[in-house]
Amino acid sequence: MTGKIIEKIIIKGKIELKSGLHIGGADFGISIGGIDSPVIRNPLTNEPYIPGSSLKGKMRSLLEKVLDVDFETFGSGKNKVKRHECNDENCKVCRLFGSSIDKNKSIPSKIIVRDSYLTKESKELLEKLDTDLPYTEWKTENSLDRITAAASPRQIERVPAGTKFEFEIVYNVENENHKKEDIENIFKLLELVEEDYLGKGGSRGNGKVEFTIEKIAKKDREYFINGNNLFEKEYGLSPKEMLNKLQEILE
Ligand SMILES: [Zn+2]
User: Fold this and answer.
1) What is the predicted pLDDT for the residue at 31?
2) E strand intervals along the chain
3) What is the total count of domains within the chain?
4) pLDDT at 142
5) How many angstroms is it from 141 CA to the middle of ligand 1?
6) 5 C-alpha vs ligand 1 centroid, how far in Å?
7) Residue 2 lies in a domain
8) Which of 42, 198, 32 shows the shortest CA–CA distance to 135?
9) DSSP assignments along 166-197, one per residue
């Protein structure tokens, strides 16, 4: 696997929260400002963001479930996770998301999912929000103590519904034969994420999101070397609607 770049397909758009989002930040083992469970923030700006690894991890696990592939257990104890990894470079999961299970034949991830930051508009709106926390809200969730059956309310910090983030996914074309199906899978997975959730507490209604694909750019070797052949097009469509545009993106 040389990892030669044939072309990069760049998908840009917005993620809109349809319900409050909780992606947990560093657990310091202490309650910060009375919040048991803080959200992850950019340490430079203090703004909440969606780590690319959260979206990518959710996409991967949904593809694994849809394709019903075999799972391996990685890590141990509290860090134990089940994930599919194999050394078949035609595997639809591993060729897109990468695999390092075979030390002699690791498969690099073909997609880069960038961290998603607040849009300018959302940042301004959230700055006016009247809570004790910058850019976020509190939600009290009751969890039942399994032993005493007593309700123990916890304060969960969430980014409020209506907030928008910028997102970007870069797909590296390394194998022309995989390109169409991989791009199709990216849009289908974004649609599946919409029917699932991001972050914590999805079954309690948190983390419902909606994607709008605003722009597709294609930068091939010709572009990088000579500055020619840049494909760029504006859309403003849902991931599902983008499936009808595959042909024009791929030609
Ligand atoms: Zn695989």
Assistant:
1) 47
2) 7-17, 72-74, 81-83, 111-113, 117-118, 137-144, 151-158, 164-173, 209-220, 231-237
3) 1
4) 73
5) 38
6) 22
7) no
8) 42
9) EEEEEEEE--HHHHHHHHHHHHHHHHHHHTS-
Q: Which two tokens stand for residue 187?
A: 């849009």
Tell me if 1 is assigned to some domain: no
Q: What is the DSSP letter of 214?
A: E
**Domain range for 35:** 7-250
pLDDT, mean of residues 190-208: 95
Mean residue pLDDT across the chain = 89
- What local confidence, expressed as pLDDT, does residue 82 receive? 85
Q: Tell how far the Cα of 99 is from the centroid of ligand 1, in angstroms.
A: 7
Confidence label for 26 from pLDDT (cuts 50, 70 and 90): low
Residue 149 has a pLDDT of 67
Q: Tokens at residue 23, please? A: 């992606």
Pairing of strands 231-237, 209-220: antiparallel
Q: In this structure, what token pair is assigned to residue 167?
A: 């997102």
Other Cβ atoms less than 10 A from the Cβ of 146: the count is 6
